[in-house]
Each structure stands twice: as C-alpha cells, then as structure tokens.
Amino acid sequence: MNRVLHFVWFVLLSWPLAAQDPGAEMADVLRSNGKIFTVVAVVGIVLVGLFVYLFFTERRLAKLENRLKNK
C-alpha cells in the first residue's frame, strides 16, 4: 500500500512538468516576419488608453466627492 501511495504521489508531482511547452512558436514566427513590433505597439496603445481613461475617471470622481463634501 505504501509503494502505491508513493507511486501515485510521484506521478502527480511530475505531471505538471510533462505539460510544459519547450517554446513559443507563434512569437518566433511573428519576430521573423517583423510583426512582433506591431503587436507590441498595439498592446502599448491599448494600455496607454486604459491608463488615460482611468486617470480621467479618477479626476471626475474626485470632483464629485468634493462637491458632496461641500454640500
């Protein structure tokens, strides 16, 4: 019984190691075609837009909170 438990334990521990991917082929293909820069630029633009939106939303909320405090 003890040997069976050890076997199951080691199989469960080694299972995630077998699922690891050796590399990212998509990134290599995009890099070789020169399109990785386009992907990075689009992700950067989306993140900048998100931060600008959050910044202006925070300013609006601060103004509303100040109005409520002054009433």
How would you portray this structure in words?
The structure is a single chain. With 71 residues, the protein is mainly alpha-helical. The protein has a domain at 22-70. 86% of the residues lie in helices and 0% in strands. It contains 3 helices and no strands. It has helices at residues 2-18, 25-33, 36-70. It is flat. The chain starts with a helix and ends with a helix.
Question: Spans with pLDDT under 50 lasting ≥5 residues?
Answer: none
Q: Strand pairing plus helix content: what structural class? A: mainly alpha
Span of the ends, CA to CA: 74 Å
- What percent of residues are in strands? under 5%
Order of helices and strands: HHH
Q: Rg from C-alpha positions?
A: 26 Å
For the biggest sheet, the summary is: none
Average pLDDT rating: 86
Give the tally of β-strands.
0
The geometry reads as flat
Helix tally? 3
In helices, the fraction of residues equals over 70%
What layout of secondary structure does this protein have?
Blueprint: H1 2-18, H2 25-33, H3 36-70
Give a concise summary.
With 71 residues, this protein is mainly α. The chain is built from three helices and no strands.
